[in-house]
Amino acid sequence: MRNNNIQRYGSVTGVKPEKLSYYKELHAAIWPDVAKKITECNIQNYSIYLKEIDGQFYLFSYFEYVGNNFSTDMQKMATDTATQRWWKETDPTQLPLPDAADKGEIWSPMEEVFHQD
């Protein structure tokens, strides 16, 4: 049966060139507790892509949320100790875009302009 309640999320952030190898290394072997928490928080089909534009590196994140309360699930993830340790490794590798930095965040949300199942 198809879940018609899927919410799709795309976001973007920069990544520091000198930290790019470490960022890739972390994600090549994501910590099992972090992967488990992502699933427990109703996130599926999660991908992160890398693009270099004019010498700057950008990360594009896409995931599908299949739960009933996004805010509650994101709070559950944010209070998880393994996830907090993970973010202490990944956050310093990233360069937030101005709109995210102004809010003390890492990732900038993107507007979905087209989707086809």
Average pLDDT reading: 95
Q: Flag low-confidence runs.
A: none
Q: Helical element count?
A: 5
Q: Class by helix and strand content?
A: alpha+beta
Gap from first CA to last CA: 14 Å
**Main beta sheet: strand number and arrangement?**
5 strands, antiparallel
Given the C-alpha coordinates, what overall shape results? Answer: globular
Order of helices and strands: EHHEEHHEHE
Estimate percent helicity. Answer: 25-40%
Rg, nearest Å = 15 Å
**Strand element count:** 5
Quote the beta fraction: 25-35%
How is the topology of this model organized?
Blueprint: E1 7-15, H1 20-28, H2 32-40, E2 43-53, E3 56-65, H3 70-78, H4 81-90, E4 94-95, H5 98-101, E5 108-109
Antiparallel strand pairs: 1-3, 1-4, 1-5, 2-3
Main features:
globular; five-stranded antiparallel sheet; single chain; 117 residues
TL;DR?
The protein contains five helices and five strands. It is of the alpha+beta class and 117 residues long.
Describe this protein's structure:
- It is a single chain.
- The chain is of the alpha+beta class and 117 residues long.
- It is built from 5 helices and 5 strands, in the order E-H-H-E-E-H-H-E-H-E.
- A hairpin with a 2-residue loop joins strand 2 and strand 3.
- The two termini are 14 Å apart.
- The mean pLDDT is 95.
